[in-house]
Amino acid sequence: DYAFESDPSLAKLDLVLRPEIEVRPYQTEALKAVVNQDSQDSSKHTVKSGIIVLPCGAGKSLTSILIAAAIKKPVLVVCSTIIAAEQFCNEFLRFTTLMASKTGMFAGAKKWPFNGPSGVLFTTYTMLVDNKNRASDSKRMANFVHSTDWGVIILDEVHQVPASGYSKAITKLKARVRLGLTATMLREDEKIEDLNTIVGPTLYHAKWKELADRGYIAKVICTQIETSMTDIVQKAYDAVQPSNGNQNNMLGHSHHLKSLLAILNPSKMQICQRLIQYHEARGDKILVFCDHIDAIKLYAEKLDRPLIYGGTSTEDARNLLQRFQIDAQKEQINTLFLSRIGDTSLDLPAATVIIQVSSHFGSRRQEAQRLGRILRAKKRSEKGFYSRFYTLVTTETHEITFSEKRRQFLEEDCGYGYQ
Questions:
Q1: 180 contacts 199 by C-beta, under 8 angstroms
Q2: Which of 87, 144, 169, 399 is deepest in the core (most CB within 10 A)?
Q3: Where is the Helicase C-terminal domain (predicted)?
Q4: The predicted structure's pLDDT at residue 248
Q5: What whole-number distance in Å separates Cα of residue 48 and Cα of residue 319?
Q6: Dist. CA 274–CA 35, nearest whole Å
Q7: 339, 323 in Cβ contact below 8 A?
């Protein structure tokens, strides 16, 4: 445990929550699980390293800001994308009295330190990984990050840290406390256990269903729609044979081809189109997810809706996200197609409906993260309001097996019924 009040070696950070900010009871519980301020003697106040698990939309950022404001030492915030780092920076400025000059950025082309001996720096996991070919300004910023003694490092989407390279980069940083944030302690490769060593144990874990019942996050109706293939596509699917040439490669290729046919099943596209039309007419905001880049490009083109994927520039993505959030008739976007890039770190409180046309095998974490995109729906407090989560599945294909695994997770771990 770190006795932060009695450590004069780190410069104090003037970080105070704005008086009008409303803190929810479970956020206070999370704060108490991490920071011990029970003693009358402030020199005995301590903070420990570990992980906070809160559903998307339950205010993970604010919870971590509460902890940083209690410690009042230099903060490093590590995010998964540039947009997420910018969003986190905006939250610090919105929720606290922190001056903009006390924030620094080391993400993409934005590279500047904060002013003075203490502040908050925002970066991404990618920027922390050693890169021999860094430009001089990046080298200077990397040196700043590594030479600074951080009071607390906030690791957003901490489940990504066990990825090779990231964990090594994190352990090299000098920090009194490491605080991980995630919506789900799941990785399909079982490496989640590594977080115990790299960050610390889970200190607070809020149950999704409980928060929904208390009105903090939206209630969700999950629906799986199963559709069979058209005869032509079924014939093509059955005709795909693994070649005896390079077994591994070809098996991979045949699986790729079969999954593409299952996604591009015309009946599935038709159902997707009808759901979009139905929900747009009701004034909903819809996110359509597909992991397969070629397939999602085709869907977006055929259904004439905008798309954000890895090849979309940060500027275009930012513009589309802003237009998705607004209700003005002229500029607004009501449906947005997203590749796997939309699984994490996009702040989209306007979204009320998700349509999943394909997903990453049976990944439970991905299912939870996608569901999280509609948990903070702005209308969540309206009587009788439910967000909707649709999974479209082609029958008699591998999609059925994978969807069962994910469905079981949502029912058992998150408490959401499927229909």
A1: yes
A2: 399
A3: 270-419
A4: 47
A5: 39
A6: 50
A7: no
